[in-house]
Amino acid sequence: MAKTIQEINEKIRKGHAVVVTAEEIIDIVHKKGAKKAATEVDVVTTGTFGPMCSSGAYFNIGHTKPRIKIGGGTCYLNDVPCYTGYAAVDILLGATALPDNDPRNAVFPGAFRYGGAHVIEELVAGKSVRLRATAYGTDCYPRKSLETWVSLKDMNEAVLFNPRNCYQNYNCAVNLSDRVIYTYMGMLKPRMGNANYCSAGQLSPLLNDPYYKTIGIGTKIFLGGGIGHIVWQGTQHNPNVKRGANGVPRMPSGTLAVMGNLKNMYPAWLKGASFTGYGVTLTVGIGIPIPILNEEIVQYTAVRDEEIWTQIIDYSENYPQISGSSLGEVNYAQLKSGSITVQGKQIPTGGISSYKCAKQIAELLKKKILTKEFYLSEPVAPIPSVGSNISFKLLQERPVKQKD
Amino acid sequence: MTKKRLVLSFPATLVDQPIVYHLVKDYDLMVNILRGAVTPKQPGKLVVEIYGKKKCVEDGINYLSGLGVELQPLAQDIKWHEEKCVSCTACVPICPTKARIVNRETMEVSHDKERCIACELCISVCPYGALEIQF
Description:
The complex is a heterodimer of chains A (404) and B (135).
Chain A: H1 5-14, E1 19-21, H2 24-32, H3 34-40, E2 43-45, E3 48-51, E4 56-60, E5 74-77, E6 80-81, E7 90-94, H4 116-124, E8 129-134, E9 145-150, E10 157-165, E11 172-174, E12 181-183, E13 186-188, E14 195-197, E15 220-223, E16 226-233, E17 256-261, E18 270-275, E19 279-287, E20 289-291, H5 295-301, E21 309-314, H6 318-321, E22 329-331, H7 332-336, E23 339-342, E24 345-351, H8 355-370
Helix pairs in contact in A: 2-3, 3-5
Chain B: E1 2-10, H1 19-25, E2 30-37, E3 44-52, H2 54-67, E4 70-73, E5 77-80, E6 100-103, E7 108-111, H3 121-125, E8 131-134
Antiparallel strand pairs in B: 1-3, 1-4, 2-3, 5-8, 6-7
């Protein structure tokens, strides 16, 4: 019997809802069958905790007296530059931003110890950061410089806004070259010395709802320990890729744009990360509840690591040059076992995304629903799925001719 | 039986001597070279773990001191800041001695001090600064 989100919320309100994690549902569907599981279970909670570069936050720091228009000027938080192309005291900080004087990869590989993501983590932890701003001054905003400590509680708004999070599946990265390479998939030893992967597999939100049948724009989510919403499909959202019979993409596919109130988040679920030789990024904790509306939905959530496949990609040549093809396919049960075999060679595996934390998030979200702290929301619009006219384009460069 | 981890500093005059051979042959010691920097005609360094009967270890150490090798206990250690670790497992394939261990049931990472040789490879691989060298 099909259920609605309203009916599920009513059950949550009455304390009757049955909520399980995406790990727990596997056995339930296996033992009882999808039909029975769909009637018994109301919500399946998912989770993921991994580095997500396309993340950032915007702040309204409050007006100074006299007023300053930082818009069009400059602004730094703990020496990390912010974007100032908005109004007077609205600033945006990207996770990957670096202090102007950071040596970057000048001495390779750079350490990238501190950047935008670390500022966000410190602010979320309740710390004060140093704000330094300059402005050109106008009749209505005469002030030209500002230096002050700020913390989240002083600000009018502090909003996490991530244009691309929560990748539905990701590459397994190896290095075919003869030298060590440093990537966003970690350090990769030469001649396939290790293979790194980055997905929570059977716990990952979009792998449990492969066609985005319940997860949509407006869906309320666990974000960085607080509450957030899905606001759009993420950038590079690419539903039209090769999929298995279970509907699960066999390569990076769907993505989500998410936002939420930074003031209610926790540093344990929003962590600055430094990738040697690559840069700074933000590790984001996301949990998405999947309402079990019918048998089909519960069948999707029962997906197991061994049924989720991904591509093995060479990051020394194929990824940077966009050339060549996949070296083969592996599933997440193999990746999580600690070693895989590629072209006859046994290779140790390493994770970039934390399964342990993903599981904690799914458990936390389950608890929040059971204690009526978290109700499900109806999506207001769907995320483009298979068959939509979305395509993943490379930039077609049109060289600019220099005039004499 | 006893085990000692030592940092051996050799004067330039000693680097061409087969000292490890004598430790093995004459003193019946198992010598595990953890790290080494030996260049002809320059002072050298070896980080070793020696294992054998208590008396043999003592005699071996006396032999080294007698030759003019400077001995220091290996106090260098990798400190694992558990509270910073998220158990992503990025360090696991990098560790040459399998000191970074994953419980494959829970995917939780732990650190085995006994296996760690303080090679420091894991430090730059950890995105969260959860591994640190301590002297």
